[in-house]
Structure formats: C-alpha cells, structure tokens
Automatic annotation (TrEMBL):
This is acylphosphatase. Keywords: Hydrolase. One of its GO terms (molecular function) is acylphosphatase activity. The active site is at R20, N38. It catalyses: an acyl phosphate + H2O = a carboxylate + phosphate + H(+). Residues 5-92 form the Acylphosphatase-like domain. Its EC number is 3.6.1.7. Belongs to the acylphosphatase family. The lineage of its organism: Bacteria, Pseudomonadati, Thermodesulfobacteriota, Desulfarculia, Desulfarculales. It comes from Desulfoferula mesophila. It is an enzyme of class 3 (hydrolase). The keyword Hydrolase applies.
C-alpha cells in the first residue's frame, strides 16, 4: 500500500489543552508515523505518514482536537513519504 505524508499546521486554542499528547495517541492508534510539536504564535505542527485513509482520519481528528481545544484552522500540505520517518513522537 502506498504511503503519504501530510504536514498540518493547526491554529486556535491548541496549546495547553493536551493537544500534542492526544494527537500522539490518535496517530499511534491509526498506525501512523510522524511527530507533533508546538510552534510559536500558539500553533501546532503535526506530521502524519501512512496509508492515505488513516492520514485523512488523523487530519479529521485534528479539526476537532481534544476537549478544551478550539481549533480555528488546519492547513495541510501533502508531501512524498519519508522512509526515515518511524514511530510517532512528541517533539520539543
């Protein structure tokens, strides 16, 4: 099965609400590789890699976020899969 990679920039109330930890749980449950990290200006970057359907599910989850989050916008860029990307981690 062909893998895809999506880079999502998520804005709104997405820091201080367990967004990264919740994203990691969702991604691991979907069997995805990648990472999630906080960015300046109260944004979160999430990189998801795996089967397109699973990546789409992760992106749909990001549009809602965990309880307490208020997602205003999710911008997605699609890239070729990176064979070096393994596991799903929180980056600091």
């Amino acid at each position: 099965m062909t893998e895809v990679r999506a880079v999502a920039l998520i804005s709104g109330r997405v820091q201080g609400v367990w967004f990264r930890a919740s994203t990691q749980r969702q991604a691991r449950a979907l069997g995805l590789a990648g990472y999630v990290r906080n960015l300046p200006l109260r944004k979160v970057e999430a990189v998801f890699q795996g089967p397109r359907e699973a990546v789409e599910q992760a992106l749909a989850w990001c549009r809602q976020g965990p309880p307490g989050a208020e997602v205003r916008e999710v911008r997605v860029s699609w890239l070729d899969a990176d064979p070096a990307l393994k596991g799903f981690e929180i980056r600091y």
